[in-house]
Structures are given as structure tokens and as C-alpha cells.
Amino acid sequence: MKKADLVSALHNNGIIRGTKLLLHSSYKSINFEGAPEEVCQSFMEAVGDEGLLVMPSHSLNFKNYPATKGPYNPGRSPSTTGAITEAFRKMPRVARSLHPSHSVAAWGRGAREFVKGHEKLEPEGAGTPLEKFSRTDGLILMMGCGIGSATILHVAEFMAEVPYLKVHYNPAWGYEAEYIDEEDGKVKTYKYNTVPGCSAGFQNAIPWLKEAGFYRELSLNKESSCLMNAGGLMKVAVEKLKQEPYALLTTDETHISGCNYCKQVQRMSRAV
Ligand SMILES: [Zn+2]
After folding, report:
1. Strand order in the sheet with 225-229
2. How far is the CA of 249 from the centre of ligand 1 (A)?
3. How far is CA 174 from the centre of its chain?
4. Is the pTM of this model over 0.85?
5. 270 Cβ partners below 8 Å, 6+ apart?
6. 8 A C-beta contact, residue 134 and residue 155
């Protein structure tokens, strides 16, 4: 698949000029003939200047992260969410939020405003870029990766106030992180109340979303991808979690036995 093929595949799937798109991706899965930058260019061409292209660019600069990386620097800290996101965050006119662990990068109409203020909020709480995205008519494309990578479901957990929000994914990382504020160049400290957890159970949401008509499987080339409606996803997931707060916990006991986070959440669910 070349750039022109990708642009036309996107158009055929309703990703057109003016679309607001949140992209999660696996570069290795799409069999693309070209660099990750060209994948980004294909998406920019498809949605155009009047559209909005958003990607996660998480850098996980926790203060006590095992491989201490120092303060998060939006211009330098690498993205840990794949080759396409790493290329994207470095491209011209791409704005990246100042959140030290869970930053988001955006390009297109209103991109700078879209990522603003993230460092003053919980990683995936109300008012964050992804929560704002769920209030648009935007689409979410999981290109060659599954719904397990859909960070926006952590926003749903936050909005539904699930009882396990206070469980830290890995307490050893600590509750603080540092970042360099672009405005004054100073190193500032960020304090966490909540740290997004494990997403092993996110596939539980597929039947809910399918039933509501907000989830569609597709293939842009040979990979398996899915396209979801952001507002629909948020509505369905928050309603479900309000009724069943542990609905996104994985049922895979093998995973749970090896995952401290899921173990704790399961214990909470059983204590109810
Ligand atoms: Zn887990």
C-alpha cells in the first residue's frame, strides 16, 4: 500500500475533508510502502486543514519510572505509542499537550487550542483533549491495533467515576512527574490523583458498541482495523459503567494472575 492507496482507502471509509479523527495505529501491521511520516501525510491529506487529526503521544515521564527519563519535554520526549505517533509529534504544525505521561498530539483546525491545559488536569479526566474529542462528531480509527489501545475508554472510566480510579497502574512509578513548561521554559511538577490503569478488558466494550451501531470492522489494506464513533462510544461506555462499574475488567484469569492492577480491581469487585 502506497500513500495514494491509503488516502483513497480512507475516503472510501468516510474519512474525508473536515473529518475529526483520533488515530491509534500499528505501523508494522499496515504493510505500507513508505516511512511513518508518509502515513501521517496521508491522513493529513485525507482530512485536510479543516479537519483535525489527533494521536496519543504518551511518554510516561513519571518521576520514579524505572528508566528515569527526566522532565517531560514536549519537543523532545519520544512517544511510546508507536512509530506513526513518534513521526507525527515531530511534524510541522503538530501541537503536543504538556501532560508529562499521557500527552496527545494534534494537527489541523483548532489543534493548539485542543491540546491546551492538559497538564492542569487528570490524565484522562474531564476537559482533557480526549474527553473534549468525545464531545465532537469525531471518529476513532484503530488501524492495525485493537480496542485495547483505545485510551478514550479510560476517559469513560473517569467520567463514570468507576470505584477503581484510585488504583495506581504501578505505584512504584509514584504520584509525581515533571515537565518543562513551553511558556516560561521552567521545570514544573505535576501531581496525580488518578493514573490510567490496565486496558486488557477493553474488548468487553466491542459487543456494546456493535449493538449500538458505533463500531465497524474494516480493512484499509490487509490489516484488521476498526472505526468507532467517539461520541457514541463515550455515551454507551459511561452508561454501561454506571450500571456495572467493573464491566471493563478482563475475564482472562491468566492475565489477572500476572497483573497486579487487575488483581486489585478484581478484589474490589468481589468485595461489593
Ligand atoms: Zn491487567
Report:
1. 95-96, 104-108, 52-56, 20-25, 139-143, 225-229, 215-218
2. 8
3. 21
4. yes
5. none
6. yes
Please list the residues that pair with 23 across neighbouring strands: 141
Ligand 1 center from residue 151 Cα (angstroms): 14
Residues in the chain: 272
Q: What is the CA(62)–ligand 1 centre distance, in A?
A: 19
Domain-wise residue ranges, the chain: 3-271
For 45-79, how does the pLDDT look when each residue is reduced to its tens digit (9 = 90+)? 999 999 999 999 999 999 998 777 899 999 999 99
Phi and psi for 25 in degrees, rounded to 5?
Answer: -150, 155
d(CA 185, CA 173): 25
Grid cell locating 155: 476517559
pLDDT tens readout for residues 166-208: 999 999 999 999 999 988 999 999 999 999 999 999 999 999 9
Cβ(15)–Cβ(141) below 8 Å: yes
Looking up cell 504544525 gives 93
Identify which of 129, 98, 82, 162 has the alpha carbon closest to the alpha carbon of residue 230.
Answer: 129
Q: DSSP string covering 122-155, please?
A: -TTSTTSHHHHHTTTT-EEEEESS-GGG-THHHH
Q: What is the DSSP letter of 78?
A: P
Q: How many CB atoms lie within 10 A of CB 159?
A: 18
Radius of gyration of the chain (CA): 18
Task: Using the mean position of ligand 1's atoms as its centre, give its distance from the Cα of residue 266 in Å.
Answer: 10
In 3-state terms the chain splits into helix, strand, coil percentages (rounded to 5) of 35, 15, 45
Measured in Å, residue 147 CA sits from the centre of ligand 1 at 15
Distance CA 98, CA 193 (A): 17
Ligand 1 geometric centre to CA of 258 (Å) = 8
